[in-house]
């Protein structure tokens, strides 16, 4: 990575504003997955050890520039305090203003503050100049440790870099190193597993991977569009009519480029989109009119893993089926179990639903890297420049 990190800058006694992504799932007053919080602890602990005055900034949900009590960060502050017991944390119920400034100014070296939900402020997502200046007033150094928001040109993701020295935290560094490796220097053969609901979400990634991968595997709901391109009927499956021609062209282009493109041979289909729906196993060209694709079948799972056996780098984004429903998670589980047992391959998994699936299976620690990014990970793999990354200081 050619960007400076917190190792490359003197933080002692400085007010260091760290953009983290604590947009975590909360149900019934409880954080159900704190992965994104725990992932930032190395950065926070390093800064505290170096006697920085640490100011954490994050969003939660989509308040759209308004104060929404249910989206306040009190629960996150309490959870974080339990993880960093020695220091404690001061939770400020605003993200700019005189009170925030005074509290941070009085903070002792090695102290920790959490600002209120940054998206309560309308100037955040607008990257408003005056709001960004008000935020910059709170700090001496800006640290971005949130790849998941780095594709947004917001005040707290890129705007601050116009007013403060900007470097990456350890999580951002790790994310960029792993994703850069996939794009620039993967051990070959390189395989890409692409799932999820829509082809349209993955167009850029598919086009990029077609030039660098030796194997591309298509599963999930997006397989319906490819199946239709082969002339198969897909019943009530999610179908993107607009992208059928693209899928057909990709099948041809992959052959021309010598890329092994694998499409499902069998599916688990259901009579409705429901956890308790009736389901059956069918071949890819025999989907009944009133049924829909919910998962890949066992023959497909074995075909996919057979193709992956000799691969040295594997990148995966998107589940193979409707993983949220127990009856339709077999394909995702089969691939995840297989990848978790590979001893001679680097496995890099995209964030979002892929990360949720892997964590639910308890296999996160058996993968080389599970990204905390969602859309940002996809955009990076497409080769796009992310505002929250390009705004960081380059290594001299």
Main features:
single chain, Rossmann fold, six-stranded parallel sheet, 396 residues, alpha/beta
Give an overview of the whole structure.
The chain folds into two domains: 6-173, Phosphoglycerate kinase, N-terminal domain (Rossmann fold, 3-Layer(aba) Sandwich), CATH 3.40.50.1260; 186-382, Rossmann fold (3-Layer(aba) Sandwich), CATH 3.40.50.1260. The model has no long low-confidence stretch (mean pLDDT 95). The longest helix has 15 residues, at 170-184. The radius of gyration is 23 Å and the shape is elongated. The strands form four sheets. It has a six-stranded parallel sheet with strand order 5-6-4-1-7-8. The protein has a six-stranded parallel sheet with strand order 11-10-9-15-16-17, with helices on both faces. The protein contains 15 helices and 17 strands. The protein has helices at 35-39, 41-49, 74-83, 98-105, 122-126, 129-136, 170-184, 203-212, 223-229, 244-257, 298-308, 330-340, 353-360, 375-382, 387-390; strands at 15-19, 26-27, 30-31, 53-57, 90-91, 112-114, 141-144, 166-168, 190-194, 215-218, 260-262, 266-270, 279-283, 292-296, 313-317, 346-349, 369-370. The protein has 396 residues and is of the alpha/beta class.
The CATH fourth-level homologous superfamily of the largest domain: Phosphoglycerate kinase, N-terminal domain
Strand arrangement within the widest β-sheet reads 5-6-4-1-7-8
Main β-sheet description: 6 strands, parallel
Give helix % range. Answer: 25-40%
* Strand element count: 17
Low-confidence segments, given as residue ranges, are: none
Tally of helical segments: 15
> How far apart are the first and last residues' alpha carbons, in Å?
12 Å
């Amino acid at each position: 990575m050619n960007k400076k990190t917190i190792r490359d800058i003197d933080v002692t006694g400085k007010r260091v504003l760290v953009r983290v992504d604590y947009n975590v799932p909360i149900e019934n007053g409880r954080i159900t997955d704190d992965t994104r919080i725990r992932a930032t602890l190395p950065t926070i602990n390093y800064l505290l050890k170096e006697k920085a005055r640490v100011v954490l900034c994050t969003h939660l949900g989509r308040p759209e520039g308004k104060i929404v009590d249910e989206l306040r960060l009190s629960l996150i502050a309490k959870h974080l305090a339990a993880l960093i017991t020695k220091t404690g944390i001061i939770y400020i119920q605003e993200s700019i203003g005189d009170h925030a400034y005074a509290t941070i100014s009085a903070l002792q070296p090695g102290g920790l503050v959490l600002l209120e939900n940054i998206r309560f402020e309308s100037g955040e997502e607008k990257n408003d100049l005056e709001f960004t200046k008000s935020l910059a007033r709170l700090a001496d150094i800006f640290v971005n440790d949130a790849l998941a928001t780095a594709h947004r040109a917001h005040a707290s993701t890129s705007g601050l870099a116009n007013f403060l020295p900007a470097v990456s935290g350890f999580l951002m560094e790790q994310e960029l190193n792993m994703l850069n490796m996939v794009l620039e220097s993967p051990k070959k053969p390189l395989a890409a597993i692409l799932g999820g609901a829509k082809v349209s979400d993955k167009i850029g990634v598919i086009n990029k991977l077609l030039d660098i991968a030796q194997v591309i595997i298509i599963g999930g709901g997006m397989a319906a569009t490819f199946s239709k391109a082969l002339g198969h009927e897909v019943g009530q499956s999610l179908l993107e009519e607009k992208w059928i021609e693209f899928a057909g062209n990709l099948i041809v282009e992959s052959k021309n480029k010598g890329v092994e493109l694998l499409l499902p041979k069998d599916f688990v289909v259901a009579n409705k989109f429901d956890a308790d729906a009736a389901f059956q196993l069918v071949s890819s060209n025999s989907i009944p009119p009133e049924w829909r694709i919910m998962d890949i079948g066992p023959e497909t799972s074995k075909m996919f893993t057979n193709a992956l056996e000799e691969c040295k780098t594997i990148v995966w984004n998107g589940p193979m089926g409707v993983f949220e429903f127990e009856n339709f998670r077999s394909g995702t589980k089969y691939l995840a179990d297989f990848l978790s047992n590979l001893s001679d391959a680097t496995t890099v998994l995209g964030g979002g639903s892929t990360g949720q699936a892997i964590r639910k299976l308890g296999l996160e620690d058996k993968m080389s890297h599970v990204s905390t990014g969602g859309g940002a990970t996809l955009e990076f793999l497409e080769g796009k420049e992310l505002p929250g990354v390009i705004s960081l200081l380059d290594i001299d």
